[in-house]
Amino acid sequence: MRRLVLRTLCALLCATSTLSAKQRLTDYVDPFIGSGGHGHVFVGACVPFGFVTTGPTQMTDGWDWCSGYHQSDNTIRGFGQLHLSGTGCADLGDVSLMPVVGDVRMQKGDTTDMQTGFYSTYSHDREYCEPGYYAVFLERYGVWARMTATQRVAFQQYVYPEGADARVVIDLENGIGWNKSTDCELRRLNDSTVVGHRFSRGWAPRRQLYFVIRFTRPMKRWQVSARDSVVAGDAIQSPRSYGLAYFDTSNDTVVGVKVALSAVSVENAMANLTTELPGSDFTQTRQAALQAWDDALNRIKATLSTERERRIFYTSLYHTMIHPTLYNDCNGDYRGMDGEVKQGADFQNYTTFSLWDTYRGTHPLFSLICPERQHDFASSLVNASKEQGFLPIWPLMSSETGCMVGSPAVPVLADLCMKGFVDDIPTAYAAIKQSLGQSFRGLKYLNSIGYVPCDKVRESVSISLENYVAYAGAARVARLLGQTADAGRYDSLSRCYAKLYDATTGFFRGRRLDGSFRPGEFNPGYQTEDFTEGTPWQYLWLVPHDVAGLIRLVGGRETFETRLDSLFLASSDLGPNANPDISGLVGQYAHGNEPSHHVVYLYNYIGKQWRTAEWVRRILREFYADAPDGLCGNEDAGQMSAWYVLSAMGFYPVDPMGGCFVIGSPVVEEATLNVGNGRTFRVIVRGNDERHIYVKSVRLNGKPYDKTYIDFADIQRGGTLEFQMTDRPSDFGTDESTWPQNNPTVLR
Q1: Do both 315 and 406 map to the same domain?
Q2: One domain, residues 325 and 289
Q3: Most CB within 10 Å of its CB: which of 213, 427, 453, 703?
Q4: Which residues sit opposite 143 in a β-bridge?
C-alpha cells in the first residue's frame, strides 16, 4: 500500500511525465530492500553500471551508513553524486548539493552540525525511489528534491515554495565515512555554470574528481566560502570549499542542476555533459534512465508465483547491476591505477570491483546475462595490473584499497579466459602470473612452502584458502595455453590446502612456520586472528576448485555428509571477537557473508541433491524479504543478490571458474535468459510450489538430463532446461556419474 501511495504522490509531483502505463519489470524493483539491517545498499538514482550514483547522504556516519543511507535515519545533509552499494567500508559522497531556503550561515565548526548546519529532516512517507529516479520532501525547507542520471551526469531538480529565498549549497568538504577532502577548487564559469575539482583520500587512498555544475537557469547571486570565512570573488581553493547559488523563485519555483563528472579534467567533464545531457528535460532524462534499467532487467524474464517473489527477484537483479561502475570519459580517457591519465582507451574501463565477494557468483551471473560487458571487465582488470603491477584486489576509482584477502581477480579473469571472453589470453595469463608471483599479502610464503604461517601473517588460513582458488584458476589458464609446467606447479599449489588440515580436530587451522599448528585452546565456532570474517566451521568448505579432494581429506563421503549436517546444527556462538559481517546464521552456516555461499550446493557432490534442494529453499524463504531489512548481511556490490537470482532459477556455481552451475531447487515458474547473440536459454519448472521443492527429473532441450549441474556452454548456446518437481526426495542425482565433480569443463 505504501508503495502505491508513493507512486501516486510522485506521479502528481511529476505531472508532465509521459512514462508508459505498460507493466515494466522495473515496477517490481524496490530499491529500499536492503536499506535497513546490515544491507548497506545504495538508495538513489543511477543507470546500470553507470559512474554516477546520485542520492541522499544522511547525517549519521556509522557502519550501517556505508552507502550514506540507512532506513532508520530521517535526516539528509546533502545529495552526493557518487555512492557505494552494499559494501562494508564507507567512502564517496563527493560534490554534495543541498537545496535550502533562507539564510544559511557557514559558521565556524562542523557545517553538518544539527544546530548550525544545512541538514533537513524528512519522512519516508514523502520519499520515493525507482530505478533511475529518487525524490524526497525536505521538511525544513519545504523543498521537493528529485534526481535522475545518465552514465556520467547527475540531474537534480528542486521544487521550492513559491517566492522562497532559494539557494543551493555546494559542499566540497564532506564525504561519506573515511572520505576526507585534501584539495578542492570551486569557481564560477558564467551565470549558470560552476566548475572545479575535489581531491580526497579515504578508503580509496588517492582520488581525483573533476566536475561541471550547470544550472538550468541563471543564478541571481554566487558566493564562495571556506566554511569559517567568506571569500570575495568567484572562486576558492580550499579543502573546505563551499559555494552558495541564489535563485529567484517569484515566477518559477523549479531549479534544475546537472553535475557532470570526470576523473581526468574539467574539460572532459564538460565534454561528458555536452555528449550525454545537452538538454534540460528532466522527465525525458528520467524516462531514459528507467528504460535503460528495464532493458537491463529484461535480460531475465521470469515468472514467479507471488508478488513478494517477483519483488525480491527483480530487486536482486537490479542490485547486481549497480557495480562495477564505468570509469572513463566519453572520449575513452580515464585515470589509471598509477594515477596517470590514459587517453583514448579502446575499451570501457570499469572500477568498483568488490572481487572477494563477487568472484563467487556475481561474475558468473554476468557471464550469462551481460556477455557484451565481459571483454571490458577483463580489459579493465588486465590494464589495472599493468598500471599498478598486480591484478586489482578491491579497486575504487584510481586507487587500490587492498581490502579483503587472497587474489580475487584471478578467479574472475580465469573464468573469463575459460569461457572465451578474453581476446588476448597470453597477456591475461601474464597478469595472473605477475600477481601470484608477488611477495606481499602472504604470497611469499605460499609460493615457497605452500601455506601462510600464522606466526608471520594474520588471517593466515583465509589468505591461504583464497589463494588456493586463485592457483587453480592459474593452472587452468596455463593448461589452455599449453603451459604444462606452469599448470602442474599451480595445480600442485592449489591442493596445498591439505597442509592446513588438522586431522585431530577436523578443521583447517593456523600453522606456524616450523610446521606446528597454533597452540592453545581451539574452538571451531569462534572467529580468531587466523580467519577473515569467519570461523573454522565456515572456512572448512572453501575448496570449491577441488571438492572431491576435500571429501577425501575429511574422511570420505559419509564423513563429509555428517560434517555438512553438523555445520547447520553447531552452536551459533561466534566468540567474543566475532565480526558483525558474520550474519544470517543457521548453526555455523552464515549466509550473510560470502565464504558460505556455495556450501549448501555441496550435497550434490555426494549424491544427496535433495538436501541441497531443502537448504536452498529455506535460505530463499528465510534470508530474503521484500522489506528494508530484507537482506541478512551486506549486499556486497551485488553478491548477496546474485545468489538469490541464480538460486531462484535453479543453479549456482560452486566452482567459480569454468562454468559448472550446480542444480538446486528453482522457485521461478519460468525464466528466459537473454544470453547474447540473439540466443535465449529458457528454464521451465513444472509442479512447483512450497511443498514440491525436490527435483524429480530434468530435461535439456527435450531430452532426459540426469546431471546435477548444467554447463555454461549449454546455457550460452541457448535452449530449454525443464524441471519436474515433486514433494519428496527422489533418486535424481544419486548416481555418481551425474555429480558435478565429474564435469570435464572444470577439470580440463
Answers
A1: yes
A2: no
A3: 213
A4: 138
| Element spanning 230, H or E | strand 230-231
For the record, the C-alpha cell of 724 comes out as 519436474
Backbone angles phi, psi at 722, to 5 degrees: -115, 125
Query: Which runs of E-coded beta strand occur in 505-617?
Result: 507-508, 585-586, 589-590
Grid cell for residue 715: 546455457
How many domains are there within the chain?
Answer: 2
Whichever domain contains 155, its CATH number is 2.70.98.10
Domain boundary among 297, 328, 354: 297
Residues 322 and 440 in one domain: yes
Give the CATH number for residue 507: 3.30.2080.10
On whether both 288 and 306 belong to a single domain, the answer is no
**Residue at a domain's end among 278, 297, 316:** 297
Q: Which tens digit of pLDDT belongs to each residue from 107-117?
A: 434 444 434 47
3-state secondary structure (DSSP) of residue 587? coil
Residues 485 and 459 grouped into a single domain: yes
Residues 458-482: pLDDT tens digits?
Answer: 999 999 999 999 999 999 999 999 9
The residues facing 502 across adjacent strands are 507
Q: For 332-353, what is the mean pLDDT?
A: 97
Residue with the larger pLDDT of the pair 290 and 237: 290
Burial of 103: CB neighbours in 10 Å, binned 0-12, 13-18, 19+: exposed
Instruction: Note down the domain range covering 57.
Output: 2-297
pLDDT score, position 229: 59
C-alpha cell at 214: 550547470
Residue 104 pLDDT exceeds 60: yes
| pTM for the model | 0.95
Residue 235 near residue 188, CB atoms below 8 Å: yes
Average pLDDT over every residue of 153-182? 95
- Enter the C-alpha cell of residue 646: 541464480
Q: Are 49 and 326 in contact (CB under 8 A)?
A: yes
In the chain, % of residues over pLDDT 90: 90
Q: Which residue has the cell 557471464?
A: 367
What is the Cα–Cα distance from 242 to 224, expressed in whole angstroms?
6
Q: Give the phi and the psi of residue 317 in degrees, each rounded to 5.
A: -60, -40
Q: How far is CA 3 from CA 27, 130, 481, 515, in A?
A: 10, 10, 54, 60
Q: What is the DSSP string of 498-522?
A: GGGEETTTTEE--B-TTSPBPPS--
Task: Tell me: do 513 and 414 sit in the same domain.
Answer: yes
Using CA atoms, how far apart are residues 13 and 28, in angstroms rounded to an integer? Answer: 21
Q: Which pLDDT band holds residue 16 (cuts at 50, 70, 90)?
A: very low
Whether 224 and 174 map to the same domain: the answer is yes
Q: Tell me the per-residue pLDDT of 668-722, one tens digit each, with 9 for 90 and over.
A: 999 999 999 999 999 999 999 999 999 999 999 999 999 999 999 999 999 999 9
Residue type present at position 201 = R
State how far the Cα of 115 lies from the Cα of 97, in Å rounded to an integer. Answer: 19
Same domain, 375 and 420: yes
CB-based burial, 588-605: b 16+ in 10 Å, e otherwise: bbbbbbbbbbbbbbbbbb
Q: What is the pLDDT of residue 232?
A: 56
Residue-wise pLDDT for 127-149, tens only, equals 999 999 999 999 999 999 999 99
Amino acid at 584: G
Determine the number of helices (DSSP H) and then strands (DSSP E) in the chain. Answer: 19, 37
Residue 226's pLDDT is what? 79
pLDDT exceeds 70 at position 351:
yes
